[in-house]
């Protein structure tokens, strides 16, 4: 595969960094577009990975950055809106940016486009603004009049070292001996980041993946309560987890969205009303929680403990 360049938007994030390392093993050049290049110094250790500081919402800058790419991968998404909604809104991050990326691909003659959507995103009937704008972005991809060959990926919760799910709950559980859990019966099928990356890479040159929407779920469905209890057990924490009724869940969301970092918002609450699981006929990804999670939040996995100690010592 000589002289092939893959360009990633969102390549500095949790999924993006993992995907970048794997792509670098196969492709001649991997270009990561980011707003702050200093945040992705680790990626620069790879000789064929190039980090470019670009405002991807600037159409002219985006067009220039994408030119010459064999394929473009858009991983950008936000779970909560920022204080300045004109710049950090769901619509801007999802549908607005997708429209600009598709236009840039068309202008540059890019042949392949991979798009990270969301499981059960729905432009009209999504239960949250997150799911509606994700659905709108997916519709833009499906209805694009350009000649780009697209594939959409719809993952459930993605887990792996440095994830924002198990690590966050582990931190909260360590701080709270009694844990009030909103929407405890919400359903999801956590999928391993390594499986997600492999499916995406395999799809680039797979004709069968063109014009397809690929759902990505792990081997088993869980309730949120089960996942939080699993986190506590794996981290060696004896905690009382109290599932909140719906009225209390909504109240918690209303309060927590004003906490710095916005750990839980009303839109998050609305998203949890839609099960993040795949249907019975959907192929499941193979990697289980037990194969991975104890390595980064467990107390009995010595390999994981050694990795943590090395990271703490900056070795």
UniProtKB/TrEMBL annotation:
Gene Ontology molecular functions? protein-containing complex binding
Q: Domain NAD(P)-binding, which positions?
A: 10-157
Query: Which lineage is the organism of this entry classified under, starting from the top rank?
Result: Bacteria, Pseudomonadati, Pseudomonadota, Gammaproteobacteria, Chromatiales
InterPro entries for this protein: ComplexI_NDUFA9_subunit, NAD(P)-bd_dom, NAD(P)-bd_dom_sf
Task: Report the source organism.
Answer: Granulosicoccus antarcticus IMCC3135
Name listed for the protein in its UniProt record: NAD(P)-binding domain-containing protein
């Amino acid at each position: 595969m000589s002289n092939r360049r893959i360009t990633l938007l969102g390549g500095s994030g949790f999924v993006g960094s993992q995907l970048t390392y794997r792509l670098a093993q196969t492709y001649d050049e991997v270009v990561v577009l980011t707003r702050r290049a200093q945040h992705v110094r680790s990626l620069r250790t790879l000789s064929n990975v190039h980090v470019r500081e670009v405002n991807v919402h600037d159409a002219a800058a985006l067009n220039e950055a994408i030119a010459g790419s064999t394929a473009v991968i858009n991983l950008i998404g936000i779970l909560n809106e920022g204080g300045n909604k004109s710049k950090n809104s769901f619509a801007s991050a999802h549908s607005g940016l997708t429209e600009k990326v598709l236009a840039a691909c068309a202008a540059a003659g890019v042949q392949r486009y991979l798009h990270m959507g969301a499981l059960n995103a729905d432009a009209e009937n999504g239960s949250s603004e997150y799911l509606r704008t994700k659905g709108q972005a997916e519709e833009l991809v499906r209805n694009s009049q350009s000649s780009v060959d697209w594939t959409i990926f719809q993952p459930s919760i993605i887990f792996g070292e440095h994830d924002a799910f198990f690590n966050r709950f582990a931190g909260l559980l360590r701080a709270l001996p009694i844990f009030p859990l909103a929407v405890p019966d919400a359903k999801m099928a956590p999928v391993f980041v390594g499986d997600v990356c492999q499916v995406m890479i395999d799809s680039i040159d797979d004709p069968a993946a063109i014009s397809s929407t690929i759902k990505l779920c792990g081997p088993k469905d869980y309730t949120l309560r089960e996942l939080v209890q699993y986190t506590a057990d794996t981290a060696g924490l004896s905690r009382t987890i109290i599932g909140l009724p719906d009225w209390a869940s909504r109240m918690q969301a209303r309060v927590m969205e004003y906490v710095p970092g916005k750990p839980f918002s009303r839109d998050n609450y609305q998203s949890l009303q839609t099960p993040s699981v795949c249907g019975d006929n959907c192929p499941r990804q193979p990697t289980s929680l037990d194969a991975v999670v104890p390595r980064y939040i467990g107390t009995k996995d010595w390999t994981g403990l050694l990795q943590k100690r090395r990271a703490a010592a900056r070795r």
